[in-house]
């Protein structure tokens, strides 16, 4: 009898597993077509929809009907209370689209770092090792910009990335939230995706690349996007991730990196962070959209080094107002080895310690290196024990406010 119950439960589960995929895929496709997006331009669409469906089915979670205004739930899974704001999802289907980080689908020349294998269970294991209870997932470079110059595929890829991220966040609500990918430089489509990701899928912010098809974030055509975001109501969080410095020369995309001896993520990503935040400053994008807060990767990369250089020589009129913004609406993640020495350069600008956040860059930085980085934070003499605890487990609460509901 017991055996019989077990069999019928298994059969039922199999039937459900068979029935549910179609409906999730249908729902995703019908919302995409409602928003003018043709997902079928990606020839891997069926695999991607199957992967997203599998994510929901792992724990029998429903596809979101409407997440509007629902604050995401954040728990502490009892493994420490550390919050990771710089963490990447890298599902197998995405590694097929973009095998190299910083490269793109048509560029298998090894110019980027080969994207590491990743899955939810290895990510959860990693979190357990470090004592991280919650991670905000985003896709790393090239994110939705894997098909340079191809609007339809960029827009479709952004949508599917966001559906996949929402599936992780829905399925593991105590462990994950997400930053949505945006199909810039296509501003109108990015505004549509922004509203969908934030209002319907429940993204806690957006992840922008340092440049989108060679355009830095202060680019004129992006202003309506900043306007739309700032006008969504309440605080908006923009996480910026460095990417390859793309130049379009004579209709050909080339990475503007004359130094090819090490991969672009090592040095160019720091330069990229500097370029785009200088651009956001000089165009006064950061001045004009006052609801918008920025998370800077790697405690700003090479950006802090450039501040005096640029704003004490040219555009001196922006110096004080910019520093004021860097000290209030800018937040600085610790990802990769930043607390051995680099942190001193940032803090020299009187950046409040309450704006320091913890980030890992997993899976691009291994658990062993992350542990060493963690130790360097703990050994850093410039922060008190309380300030270190806040960096790891509290400052993000001030950043996200009512976007996250703390258990
Ligand atoms: C997840 O990734 C880890 C590390 O790459 C691997 O050992 C493991 O087999 C993977 N698990 C699944 C379910 O794919
Ligand atoms: C651009 O392409 C045209 C036509 O192929 C060629 O004549 C020209 O030299 C190219 N310019 C550069 C800068 O490569
Ligand atoms: C911000 O406002 C200033 C005027 O105060 C204007 O000159 C500048 O172009 C604006 N920049 C953006 C990106 O809106």
UniProtKB/TrEMBL annotation:
Tell me the keywords, alphabetical order. Answer: Decarboxylase, Lyase, Signal
Q: Which domain of life is it from?
A: Eukaryota
- Report domain Amidohydrolase-related positions: 84-395
Known InterPro entries for this protein?
ACMSD, Amidohydro-rel, Metal_Hydrolase
GO CC term, one of those recorded: cytosol
User: MF terms per GO, please?
Assistant: carboxy-lyase activity; hydrolase activity
GO BP term (any one): secondary metabolic process
In terms of Pfam families, this protein maps to: Amidohydro_2
Question: So which residues are the signal peptide here?
Answer: 1-19
Give the family, as the similarity comment puts it: Belongs to the metallo-dependent hydrolases superfamily.
Under the heading PANTHER family, the entry gives: 2-AMINO-3-CARBOXYLMUCONATE-6-SEMIALDEHYDE DECARBOXYLASE, AMIDOHYDROLASE-RELATED DOMAIN-CONTAINING PROTEIN
Name of the protein in question: Amidohydrolase-related domain-containing protein
Which organism's genome codes for this protein?
Ephemerocybe angulata
């Amino acid at each position: 009898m017991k055996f019989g119950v077990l069999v019928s439960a298994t059969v039922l589960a199999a039937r459900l597993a068979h029935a549910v995929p179609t409906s999730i895929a249908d729902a995703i496709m019908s919302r995409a077509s409602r928003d003018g997006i043709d997902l079928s331009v990606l020839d891997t669409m069926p695999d991607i929809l199957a992967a997203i469906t599998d994510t929901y089915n792992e724990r029998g979670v429903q596809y979101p009907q409407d997440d509007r205004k629902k604050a995401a739930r954040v728990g502490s899974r009892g493994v420490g209370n550390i919050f990771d704001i710089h963490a990447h999802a890298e599902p197998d289907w995405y590694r097929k689209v973009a095998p190299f980080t910083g490269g793109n689908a048509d560029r298998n020349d090894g110019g980027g770092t080969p994207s590491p294998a990743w899955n939810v269970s290895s990510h959860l294991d990693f979190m357990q090792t470090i004592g991280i209870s919650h991670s905000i997932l985003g896709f790393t470079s090239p994110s939705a910009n894997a098909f340079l110059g191809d609007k339809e595929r960029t827009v479709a890829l952004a949508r599917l990335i966001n559906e996949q991220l929402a599936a992780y966040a829905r399925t593991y609500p105590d462990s994950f939230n997400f930053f949505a990918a945006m199909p810039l430089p296509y501003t109108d489509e990015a505004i549509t995706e922004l509203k969908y990701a934030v209002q319907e899928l429940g993204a806690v912010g957006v992840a922008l690349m340092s440049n989108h098809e060679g355009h830095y974030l202060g680019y004129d055509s992006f202003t309506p996007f900043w306007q739309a975001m700032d006008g969504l109501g309440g605080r908006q969080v923009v996480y910026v991730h460095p990417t390859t410095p793309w130049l379009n020369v004579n209709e050909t995309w080339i990475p503007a990196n004359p130094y090819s001896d090490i991969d672009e993520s090592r040095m160019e990503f720091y330069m990229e962070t500097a370029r785009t935040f200088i651009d956001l400053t000089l165009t006064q994008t950061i001045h004009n959209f006052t609801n918008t807060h920025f998370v800077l990767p790697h405690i700003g990369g090479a950006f802090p080094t450039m501040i005096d250089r640029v704003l004490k020589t040219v555009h001196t009129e922006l110096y004080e107002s910019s520093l004021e913004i860097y000290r209030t609406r800018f937040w600085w993640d610790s990802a990769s080895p930043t607390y051995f020495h680099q942190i001193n350069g940032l803090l020299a600008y009187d950046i409040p310690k309450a704006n320091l956040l913890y980030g890992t860059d997993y899976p691009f930085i291994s658990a062993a290196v992350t542990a060493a980085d963690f130790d360097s934070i703990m050994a850093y003499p410039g922060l008190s024990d309380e300030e270190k605890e806040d960096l790891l487990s509290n400052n993000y609460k001030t950043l996200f406010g009512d976007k996250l509901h703390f258990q």
